[in-house]
């Protein structure tokens, strides 16, 4: 459908032309640096535009995909058909009482550092998670004993009919690296994090310790999508992969990290095909050696 004039015309009536990119390479927008092109890549300027795009895509029966920072997904090399929306213009973060309110395109790392600045505690765990606020809610992101579920009070979303809804955290079915956001087709626009006044030095120290731990254990020098697999009941994915002697094994430019076995790194201009082949090699090998099925945490989108 690349460059379908009727779609361009409709989108141009919703948002400024500078917000519409045709046949846009997605690898430059994604943390993984993988993936093909989007037919239409749109960066709406406000929430009314998001609502209008959702309604238009529905009514015209055009596929609609929302991307955050791409730190938990792989876009296949054939790219994504239809309209891809990025909330990268929604980056405001502000305080109301002890609540930090963040728009969905803000980086959760920046929200965590804003909490430090405001002497608020509760988001220290997120100080190294390289996703957006929207992606963090979608995945119920968590680390080092904390997760979004612990501090999210409510959020504002657009539903598949283009309606704005305010939802309490309890309505999102947040659980280990999941929520009902995909099932309900919500687009997160804003999140309210309920925090507590804290001691700035303690918050700072906690964040420094977590950052040090992360930097010493994770291959942050390469693009990746973080831990590829969920923790299987009774095991650790990284340990199973390490014990399968897969570290350093690769296909094309993608490789199982030698620093953290749960990560697959884009070491040398990997394609999404390379990356997915390494994921499958790991799943196959671990199943053969230990009889354990590794379930992907990472989402795979788009066409081959
Ligand atoms: C080096 C590294 C370290 C990581 N460490 C951690 C960690 O400690 N803990 C952890 O939980 N994760 C971790 N991750 C994974 C990842 O950062 C998180 O899952 C993050 O929350 C994903 O956010 P994103 O914006 O990148 O989402 P994306 O990867 O862009 O998208 C993920 C899914 O969320 C959806 N989505 C994104 N934004 C919205 C929105 N506004 N509304 C609705 N749906 C949306 C997308 O459609 C997609 O299906 C790590 C990743 C890397 C690369």
What can be said about this structure in brief?
The chain has 304 residues and is of the alpha+beta class.
Describe this entry's structure for a reader.
With 304 residues, the protein is α+β, with helices and mostly antiparallel strands. The protein contains 9 helices and 19 strands. The strands form 6 sheets. The chain has a 5-stranded antiparallel sheet. Strands 1-2-5-3 form a 4-stranded mixed sheet. Strands 15-18-17-16 form a 4-stranded antiparallel sheet, with helices on one face. It starts with a helix and ends with a strand. Bound molecules: flavin-adenine dinucleotide.
Small molecules bound: flavin-adenine dinucleotide
Spatial strand arrangement across the major sheet: 6-7-13-11-12
Q: Termini separation (Å)?
A: 15 Å
Number of helices, where a helix is a run of at least 4 consecutive DSSP H or I residues: 9
Q: What shape does the CA trace take?
A: globular
Uncertain segments are none
């Amino acid at each position: 459908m690349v460059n379908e004039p009727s779609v361009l015309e409709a989108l141009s009536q919703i948002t400024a032309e500078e917000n519409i990119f045709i046949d846009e390479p997605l690898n430059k927008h994604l943390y993984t640096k993988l993936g093909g092109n989007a037919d239409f890549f749109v960066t709406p300027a406000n929430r009314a535009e998001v609502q209008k795009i959702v309604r238009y895509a529905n009514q015209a029966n055009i596929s609609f995909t929302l991307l955050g920072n791409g730190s938990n997904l792989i876009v296949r090399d054939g790219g994504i058909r239809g309209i891809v929306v990025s909330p990268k213009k929604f980056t405001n973060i502000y305080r109301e009482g002890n609540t930090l309110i963040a728009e969905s395109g803000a980086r959760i790392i920046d929200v965590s550092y804003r909490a430090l600045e405001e002497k608020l505690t509760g988001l220290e765990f997120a100080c190294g998670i390289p996703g957006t606020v929207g992606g963090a809610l979608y995945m119920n992101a968590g680390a080092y004993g904390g997760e979004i579920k612990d501090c999210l009070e409510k959020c504002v979303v657009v539903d598949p009919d283009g309606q704005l809804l305010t939802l309490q955290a309890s309505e999102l079915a947040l659980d280990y690296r999941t929520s009902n956001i995909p099932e309900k087709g919500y687009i997160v626009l804003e999140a309210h994090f309920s925090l507590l006044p804290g001691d700035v030095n303690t918050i700072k120290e906690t964040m420094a310790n977590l950052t040090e731990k992360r930097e010493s254990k994770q291959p942050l020098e390469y693009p990746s999508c973080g831990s590829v697999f969920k923790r299987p009941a009774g095991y650790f994915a990284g340990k199973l992969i390490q014990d399968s002697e897969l570290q350093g094994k690769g296909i094309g430019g993608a490789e199982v990290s030698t620093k953290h076995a749960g990560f697959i790194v884009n070491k040398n201009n990997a394609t999404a095909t390379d990356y997915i082949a390494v994921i499958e090699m790991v799943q196959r090998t671990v199943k053969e050696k230990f009889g354990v099925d590794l379930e992907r945490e990472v989402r795979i989108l788009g066409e081959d």
